[in-house]
Design a protein that fits this description.
seven-stranded mixed β-sheet; alpha/beta; disordered N terminus; globular; six-stranded mixed β-sheet; about 475 residues
Length: about 475
């Protein structure tokens, strides 16, 4: 498979990508350089004006064909994703992610965006339009490499831009294969992937020809991108780290919410920015919720992603495994109670960390205060709703949150007090291509999805007269 014909040649150096479940080789990824980035930017810059000139209807039609191409290659893409990232084929994992790629392509194509008449009073007529930015730099993560790449490139293309994609060094093969598939429906050189290291990412973020950078990843890297983008005053959409809180109100039904809580926390084996990462449960429900969650967790098989029976996989890399292991060991040393898990097999292959629930833990414990980004959920007891809201709001991040209750009005009132970009009720992390999504505080800024997501990939222009 020629995953990037613009840049890849027989002379391009490569590195071996390993399966995080087995340690076996998945394939060879090209190691592109800053010079390759320059070539890619030159090519997409030349291709962009003709794409912009096609207009929304023709661009949307091409995105629909790209979605068809993804669906036609869905199983091959899902198996590659499972082997490279580690997530199982089944459950809300690899097949789900590939399906989401097609869904978001179609949503970007189908979302209407009309010129807005701001004033028309007989004397003044002002209309707001959105014009293409030019070239967008898309820097993606390793946890949902295909889906988040589509979140970045689909609205960019719809709005008439060209895109240079810089995938994570951990999961380049998935992104290369996805973009090759999408490119079968697009003009040549409109989207290019530069599979390089940190130097390539830094050059992309500061390059004068890049009009906007979209980034999903850590807050620390997001801050570096802000600094790199300053001299050229780039537009930015940043979806950064989260440490999402969930609050279970006293009137909840523990049995009814247990599976929703589990998947809110453990989707993609906990490796999701907007996953539930700290759970606050009222003292009257605490033991029942702990028991119900433990029962659900015991029934969820973990193992190699290509095994159709598994719904949880390994952590994607050694660094993330070490973070989760450290935080759980610190929690255990503090006297917190392990309900399930916390006992990895050091001799087993792969970066598997068992599904772990930790109860009777202090709110300032590192497992609560730091983002674990893995399959370990701390459960914290509270006495009053005011206490729970204060604890949920105490951190400097605010990507998502959730409130769990049988009383929707009560849940909505509590939700309005939480400092987060999205607050879900009786679910967690359920994103929708029609609904704007973005973070508060140090979880980033800018909105993705829906009409607001399209606007973020354009330059606003007012025609007055």
């Amino acid at each position: 498979m020629n995953t990037n014909s613009l840049l890849t040649s027989t002379s391009t150096p490569t590195r071996t990508i390993l399966d995080p479940a087995t340690g076996e080789a998945v394939g060879e990824a090209p190691v592109h350089t800053v010079e390759d980035l320059e070539a890619a930017i030159t090519a997409v810059t030349e291709a962009q004006p003709a794409w912009a000139a096609l207009g929304h209807e023709a661009r949307s039609a091409a995105l629909m064909k790209a979605a068809d191409a993804v669906e036609a290659n869905a199983e091959e893409l899902a198996k590659l994703l499972s082997r490279e990232q580690g997530k199982p084929l089944n459950g809300p994992n690899a097949r789900f992610e590939v399906g989401a790629c097609a869904a978001w392509l179609r949503a970007a194509a189908a979302t209407p965006l009309e010129a807005e008449t701001v004033v028309d009073d007989g004397e003044t007529r002002a209309q707001l339009h959105y014009r293409p930015i030019g070239v967008v730099g898309a820097i993606g993560p390793w946890n949902w490499p295909m889906m988040i790449t589509v979140w970045q490139i689909a609205p960019a293309l719809r709005m008439g831009n060209a895109v240079v994609v810089k995938p994570s060094e951990y999961t380049p093969l998935s992104v290369l294969a996805l973009v090759e598939t999408i490119n079968t429906a697009l003009p040549e050189n409109l989207v290019s992937v530069v599979s390089g290291g940190r130097d390539v990412g830094e050059a992309l973020a500061s390059h004068p020809a890049i009009g906007k950078v979209m980034f999903t990843g850590s807050t620390a890297t997001g801050k570096a991108i802000i600094r790199s983008s300053a001299d050229t005053v780039k537009r930015l959409t940043l979806e950064l780290g989260g440490n999402d809180a969930g609050i279970v109100l006293p009137d909840s039904d523990p049995q009814a919410i247990a599976e929703g809580l589990f998947w809110g926390a453990f989707i993609n084996t906990g490796q999701t920015c907007a996953a539930l990462k700290r759970l606050y449960v009222h003292e009257s429900q605490y033991d029942a919720v702990c028991d119900a969650l433990t029962n659900v967790a015991q029934a969820m098989p973990m193992g190699n992603g290509l095994d159709e029976n598994n719904v949880l996989g390994p952590l994607q890399n050694q660094q993330q495994y070490d973070i989760v292991a450290r935080l759980v060991e610190d929690a255990k040393a503090s006297g917190a109670r392990v309900l399930i898990g916390g006992n990895p097999d050091a001799n087993a292959p792969g970066y598997f960390y068992p599904t772990t629930l930790i109860a009777d833990i202090d709110n300032d414990n590192p497992l609560v205060a730091e983002e674990q980004f893995g399959p370990a959920l701390p459960i914290i007891k509270y006495s009053t709703v005011d206490e729970a809201v204060a604890k949920a709001n105490a951190l400097d991040v605010g990507l998502g949150a959730s409130v769990w209750s049988s009383d929707l009005d009560a849940a909505r009132e509590v939700a309005s007090r939480i400092q987060a970009g999205t607050v879900w009720i009786n679910k967690h992390g359920a994103v929708d291509p029609r609904v704007p999504f973005g973070g508060a505080k140090q979880s980033g800024y800018g909105l993705e999805f829906g009409v607001e997501g399209l606007k973020a990939l354009g330059v606003p222009q007012v025609i007055n007269g």
